Amino acid sequence: MIRSLVIALLVSGGWASAAQAEAPLEQLALLSEHPIEGMPGSNLSGLAWCGDALWGVSDREDDRLYRFDARESVWQAEAEHFIAPPAPAMPLPWGLRMRTWAAGLVRGGMLDFEGLSCDSLGNRYLVSESRAAVLMVPPAADARWLDLPPAMVRQARASGMLLHFNQLFEGIAVDPAGARLWLAAERKRRGLLVLHRQQQTWRCTGGCVLQHEGGSEAAPEPLAGPPQPRDYSGLAFHNEKLFTLERQAHRICRRALADGSVERCWSFAEAALSDARRYPVSYGVAEALWVDAEGAWIGLDTASMSRADGEQRPIVWRFAAPKGGWGATR
């Protein structure tokens, strides 16, 4: 009888866990929407709050960052130029490098900057998808590439990441001290990597790969089409947690620093997929993420596509923090 009772409890607990896992995610509340003027091509690929302003980067321009003038509802992008020195050689295969080089010639953006982060000193960190490298742009000095270990790329590829064209690094996060750095591999397989600064170099401590996974998942109901590969399109660090922007699923997830495991997720699908905000594609266009105590900034790479209401410009959304804050358990 006791055995039967234990089995019954385990089974009921399993059903409860499954029901909890399948429960609808809390929807984040959209506070404001800001079209951006002054970004040619509408290719907003990264966001970071540096000093007193929000900054952005385009994956089609190799020589500038944008500071957003947010005094009006429509923001103005003000360019800050820099010169990137030759990128370091990382152990990517010749075929992958040649495809990336050819794509850069056609569409622009040979370095393909896909993420942006900032430390407490105002240093900006840009991850180059095409070079699997990170450029640091200080506020008052020349830009320079970080000394990242080639083992980072080798370990990522051995784990099934960074194997496919245009599916390499898609997000970056740096802690305020500029001592820890995380990178997000986009998809097929997606994953998280971590490095620690030692003097002027960066090293893997106990291995670079923090988390990786494959598989597919269905998009939110308003989007048609078959399930798509799980992806990361943005990464942020806040209050000793990582936050991943999961474009196809239209959600933000909080993850543990120790192993990248998911702790809780929140959806922004309700706002993003409203009739007026729909784009003529079956995938998400959210590419950039910054998280703070009051909420989250999400940037859209619209590539000059028109959404249902006719808007073509890149967009930044401001969402309120969830009930109980980003650290809430349930």
UniProtKB/TrEMBL annotation:
It comes from the Bacteria. It holds the Pfam family Phytase-like. The keyword Signal applies. Keywords: Signal. Residues 43-191 form the Phytase-like domain. InterPro entries: Phytase-like_dom (IPR027372). Residues 1-21 form the signal peptide. Transmembrane segments: none annotated. This is Esterase-like activity of phytase. It comes from Pseudomonas cuatrocienegasensis.
